[in-house]
Each structure stands twice: as C-alpha cells, then as structure tokens.
C-alpha cells in the first residue's frame, strides 16, 4: 500500500478534543479549585461544538469530574471518560500527533522528556501507548519514535508546510544541525517545507519557545502571531523581530502570508513572577475558536483579530488565568483528534 499519510491542519474537521482532568497529584494541587473551574468552562465550550475525551486517573476522579460537569449543565452525551495515568495535563505535548491517509490513521508517539528534563514525565511519556490499548481509536497504528518532540513545538498548514522555532528544537537536540532537524521532521510528519523562527519568547514559558505560544497558521495562507506594541516591555524587541521574520516568510507560491498580529496583554504577575499570557495559544474546533482570556482589556481586541482570521467560526473566550500560573494556556492542555479517528 502507498504511504499517503499527511498531518492535517487543526482547522480540518475533528472527531473530538482530548484532555486530562487535573487532580491533587498533578502540579495543579496548590490551586486545584481554580483550574477545575477553567476545565469545566473548557469542556462546556467544547461540547457546544463536538465531543471531548477526558482522561481520568481513577474512578473517583471520574465521578467527581462528571458531577462538576453535570452541575454546569454540560451535554454529557458528548463527554467520554477514559482511565489513564499521567504526571500532568499538558496533552498538547504528551498526546498523539495524528497523521491521516483517507480512513487510516498513524499515531506518532514521540519521546516526551518533561521539556528537556525539567520535570518528571515517565507516565506522560507512556500516555500514547496507554490510550492505544483501550479501543478508543479506529483503524490506526502507532509509530514509536525515539526523538524528543512536543506537539506544541510544531504547527502545520495541512498542505506540507511546518512552522517551528529553532530555540526549542535546538535545546532538545543540541548536536543536530538545522538541516538534519528539518529532514527528520519533514520525514516523520510528511512535510516538504520546514519554516524556522529564530526570534520570539515569553517570560514564564518553560517550553523553550513552543511555536503554539507565538505563531499559528490560519486558513488561506495566513499566520496569526503574538505581537507586542509596548516599547517599554521586555518582550518588545524579540516579538518585533519575530514579526519581521514572519513577514519575510513566503508561501509555497512565493507570496507573503496574510498576517494577523494579536494584541498584547498587560503584564500578569504571580508573587512577582511574570506569567506567559499569550493569545496565540487558542484552540480550533469544528465551527469555533476557543480563545484564552485573561481578564485583560485586550481580550476583546484579540477576539476581534481571531474573528478576522477565522471568519467562518464563532470566537469563544475561555478564562485562562489559572492555566498560565503553571506556564501554559488553552492550546497546551488540549489535543485534537482528526475526523474518523475516534471509535464509536
């Protein structure tokens, strides 16, 4: 059989969104109530448009999560719980990266090292294998790849172009050249172009500049990216340089991308620590875009930018201040499952 697998764009039709419910044994323990509220709001928003699959650590956690969701009047017909062990809930980086060939699916299981060994990650690294053994997916196989890569480090337009950052991939693989990394990523992810960003970072981000906090492809040869218009902010020089890099990128046909710069939120501090409040960390659904909201005056302006970039989708704001306390946001805690992957 020919290998015609490809990595779908996130705006292509999905079966479901995969998440993991926070609990007292995760890093959320200190502020568990706050983050649970965010998860309830997230599931309520997702189930307006499509199903959600929720990993739970045990039966008691499922019972509790189900009670919270029912109290919020969530459509439980669109909720599916699965038992799994996990160190934390950042499923963008630990869940399956799925390629599709018609009705066949390839789940890529890259190594997860806790973002370069910063955190314990042994259970997270086993998550794809655990999920693949429970009749959750349809007509698929798993390809295990001994190479550290997180889902938040890459973004694809669904047509063979990948966007990533040099800082992250170089940190994970310091002995590999850019050409070597491009060839490996292109081969595994079925891409024929890899575009690299050399600038861009967020204080409070411990992923070494994941691209999903900085810049994202959008339909119609467009890129949405996090800008900073405050010359007195510590991010201004780097994000301005990143914006110039993005403006210099070209589509496969040699044209510039249509650009959608996102507004900049006021600094959000936690005991003096700057938190990474990026509007680029949004989640695309069937018919909607869920946008991280931070209770900032720029929230509505960011929603207006996303409405222009995704004119056929409803923009739904989800409160995410609780998430950035642990250095991530909305896209980081979710992983889309392409249409047809989920079993009945």
Characterise this structure.
- The protein is built from 11 helices and 18 strands.
- A hairpin with a 3-residue loop joins strand 10 (215-218) and strand 11 (222-226).
- It is globular, with a radius of gyration of 19 Å.
- It has 344 residues and is an alpha/beta fold.
- It has one domain: 5-stranded Propeller (L-arginine/glycine Amidinotransferase, Chain A).
Low-confidence stretches: none
**Integer average pLDDT:** 97
Task: Using the alpha-carbon principal axes, give the shape.
Answer: globular
> How many H/I helices?
11
N-to-C series of helices and strands: EHEHEHEEHHHEEEHHEEEHEEEEEHEHE
Query: In percent, how helical is the residue content?
Result: 25-40%
Please identify, by name, the CATH architecture. 5-stranded Propeller
Number of strands: 18
What topology emerges from the helices and strands here?
Layout: E1 14-20, H1 32-46, E2 52-56, H2 59-71, E3 79-83, H3 91-94, E4 97-101, E5 104-111, H4 114-117, H5 122-125, H6 127-131, E6 140-148, E7 154-156, E8 161-165, H7 166-172, H8 178-189, E9 193-197, E10 215-218, E11 222-226, H9 236-248, E12 258-262, E13 269-270, E14 273-274, E15 283-285, E16 288-293, H10 299-309, E17 314-319, H11 321-324, E18 335-338
Parallel strand pairs: 1-2, 2-3, 5-6, 8-9, 11-12, 16-17
Antiparallel strand pairs: 1-18, 4-5, 7-8, 10-11, 13-14, 15-16
């Amino acid at each position: 059989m020919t290998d015609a697998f490809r990595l779908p764009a996130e705006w292509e039709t999905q079966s479901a969104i995969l998440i993991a419910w926070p609990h007292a044994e995760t890093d959320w323990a200190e502020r568990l109530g706050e983050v649970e509220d965010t998860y309830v709001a997230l599931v309520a928003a997702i189930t307006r448009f499509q199903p959600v699959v929720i990993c739970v650590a045990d039966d008691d956690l499922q019972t509790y999560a189900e009670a919270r969701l029912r109290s919020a009047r969530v459509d439980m017909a669109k909720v599916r719980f699965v038992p799994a062990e996990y160190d934390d809930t950042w499923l963008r980086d630990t869940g399956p990266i799925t390629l599709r060939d018609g009705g066949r699916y390839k789940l890529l299981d890259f190594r997860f090292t806790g973002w370069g060994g910063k955190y314990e990650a042994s259970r997270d690294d086993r998550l794809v294998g655990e999920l693949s053994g429970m009749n959750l997916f349809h007509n698929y196989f798993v390809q295990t790849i001994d190479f550290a890569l997180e889902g938040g480090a890459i973004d694809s337009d669904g047509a063979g172009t990948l966007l990533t950052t040099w800082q992250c991939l170089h940190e994970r693989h310091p002995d590999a050249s850019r050409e070597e990394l491009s060839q490996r990523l292109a081969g595994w992810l079925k891409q024929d172009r890899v575009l690299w960003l050399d600038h861009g970072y967020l204080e409070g981000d411990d992923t070494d500049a994941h691209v999903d906090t900085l810049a994202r492809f959008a339909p119609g040869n467009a890129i949405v990216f996090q800008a900073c218009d405050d010359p007195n902010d510590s991010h201004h020089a780097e994000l301005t340089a990143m914006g110039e890099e993005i403006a210099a990128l070209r589509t496969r046909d040699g044209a510039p991308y249509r650009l959608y710069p996102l507004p900049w939120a006021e600094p959000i501090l936690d005991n003096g620590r700057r938190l990474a409040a990026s509007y680029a960390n949004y989640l695309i659904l069937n018919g909607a875009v869920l946008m991280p909201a931070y209770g900032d005056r720029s929230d509505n302006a960011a929603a207006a930018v996303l409405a222009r970039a995704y004119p056929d989708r409803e923009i739904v704001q989800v409160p995410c201040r609780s998430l950035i306390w642990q250095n991530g946001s909305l896209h980081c805690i979710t992983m889309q499952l392409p249409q047809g992957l989920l079993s009945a």
